[in-house]
Amino acid sequence: MASLSAFQLNVFLILAFTVTAFSALSPYYYDHVCPKALPTIKRVVEAAVYNERRMGASLLRLHFHDCFVNGCDASLLLDSTSTIDSEKNSLANKNSARGFEVIDLIKKEVDKICGCPVVSCADILAVAARDSVVALGGSSWNVQLGRRDSTTGSRTQADKNLPSPLMDLPGLIENFKRQGLNQKDLVALSGGHTLGYAQCFTFRDRIYNDTNIDRNFAKESRRTCPRSGSDTNLAPLDPSHDSFDTAYFSNLVKYKGLLRSDQALFHGGSGSTDRLVKAYSYNAGAFSSDFAKSMVKMGNIKVLTGKQGQIRSNCRKVNNY
């Protein structure tokens, strides 16, 4: 009887280990399943960024907007159906989120090189975000892999959970806290705005009405964004908008943050976010290191693993089989 109990215990431990091993994310997840998967993703991302530098910011943003809505599960990529109200139609994504065709191409190339759909769309988003940063001059990091894809999306949750460009600091802190992210994560991840552009309607109120803004910067920005109309006109989020550097933080110290939610991180006092903004503005190594750590942390939000979810054959559609 005692030996039977010991046997049962061993079986239990083996099963527990197996579930843990296949449920945990790992940077080596595809090493044996499809070792050419990550090089293939890198190749497609580099080509897309070479063709259009702005695409790097767009792919990074897709991963961020995916993770903040029910976790990093590629729900953002799903098109609308009779049962899915696509997150692409949310206020933060409609006529704004872009790069979906690059993700489609990555999926096609990866599935071809692997011989079948073994790489999830959620993992593709995470790796493409990293490779975009590297392609634009940023440092690399080990992406944790093994996510699976959701079978549903929610425009309602996207509207509720994605941070607004009009948020103040308490609102941003609370928004990130709901995702398990702290103030250091908030400032570091906001540094992703060293890349890309914003549409006029997202910063119009700031450049005409805010007082914590450099006067000349506001005047210059008004050339791109008049008081009415031209809502989709683009302005760079920082002067070196296609290079991953610390200019974003240097701008905040000079009160040249384009979005209200960006300048909210720096008030000119001694608050924790003020100190981080100052530190990152002159210490590129600290920013790169903290950004990488926060990207990994964000990439772990509510992931699906093991037998949860599915590996989609088409990132825009749920598998029906």
From TrEMBL:
Domain Plant heme peroxidase family profile: 24-319
Its biological purpose: Removal of H(2)O(2), oxidation of toxic reductants, biosynthesis and degradation of lignin, suberization, auxin catabolism, response to environmental stresses such as wounding, pathogen attack and oxidative stress. These functions might be dependent on each isozyme/isoform in each plant tissue.
Binding-site residues, Ca(2+) 2: T194, D238, D245
Family under the similarity heading: Belongs to the peroxidase family. Ascorbate peroxidase subfamily.
Subcellular location: Secreted
PROSITE patterns linked to this entry: PEROXIDASE_1 (PS00435), PEROXIDASE_2 (PS00436), PEROXIDASE_4 (PS50873)
Domain of life: Eukaryota
Note accompanying the cofactor annotation: Binds 2 calcium ions per subunit. Binds 1 heme b (iron(II)-protoporphyrin IX) group per subunit.
Protein name: Peroxidase
Stored InterPro entries: Haem_peroxidase, Haem_peroxidase_sf, Peroxidase_pln, Peroxidases_AS, Peroxidases_heam-ligand_BS, Secretory_peroxidase
CDD domains in UniProt: secretory_peroxidase (cd00693)
Chief subcellular location: secreted
Keyword vocabulary terms for this entry: Calcium, Disulfide bond, Glycoprotein, Heme, Hydrogen peroxide, Iron, Metal-binding, Oxidoreductase, Peroxidase, Secreted, Signal
Record lineage: Eukaryota, Viridiplantae, Streptophyta, Embryophyta, Tracheophyta
